[in-house]
Design goal:
28% strand, 179 residues, GNAT family N-acetyltransferase, N-acetyltransferase, binds coenzyme A, 8-stranded mixed sheet, Acyl_CoA_acyltransferase, GNAT_dom, 4 helices
Amino acid sequence: MTDLGPVAWPPVPIRTERLVLRGSEARDRAVFIELHASPEVHTYLGGPRPRDELEREMPAVPGRWPGSFVVELDGAMIGRILLRRAPEHRRPAAEGKVDLGYLFLPRVWGCGYAAEACAAALGWVGGLLPGEPVVLATQTANVGSMRLAAKLGFTEVERFQAWGAEQWLGVRSPVAPSD
Ligand SMILES: CC(C)(COP(=O)(O)OP(=O)(O)OC[C@H]1O[C@@H](n2cnc3c(N)ncnc32)[C@H](O)[C@@H]1OP(=O)(O)O)[C@@H](O)C(=O)NCCC(=O)NCCS
């Protein structure tokens, strides 16, 4: 499901101007729960999970798989980025492609952190899998996510109905190597 091929994980932390992208650790567990229990974060993602269920079921080190980045600001987790292959995506155009997902704590929205972190993660996957396109699916009503997708260079493949809402599938083609 998440197969990106042979990849060293956890990765060497990636540093951007303001952030660090790294593999998850036990100290991130509380923020994973906060993210996944947040109604605001899950407005366009099918709703949050109950906090007590998350407290019971969240592994000691959550999200520890290649392509699952924790985004850190000033030493504390503020969000996640997920890069995984979708072998059985419901849209044929996305099948077998690497898919980008992102979740950030509402208190850090509107600062450009998601854009900064996603650009770095796309650079990482571009180095790992040169020439591969990346896909992204999001609800069209999710304005922040749609703006982010455009900023990152995703272009529309199609719109479709699923889970009772209009969805957008975008693709980001690899940057052509310069001469
Ligand atoms: C989708 C999501 C990640 C977007 O977060 P965000 O903070 O709005 O995204 P960005 O990083 O692009 O930052 C947005 C704004 O920060 C502003 N900003 C402030 N300071 C900035 C800075 N120093 N640099 C860049 N932008 C800055 C920008 O103007 C930008 O606004 P704009 O898009 O209107 O131009 C966030 O809403 C989220 O986590 N949602 C819940 C999960 C979800 O729905 N995921 C989608 C499914 S995959």
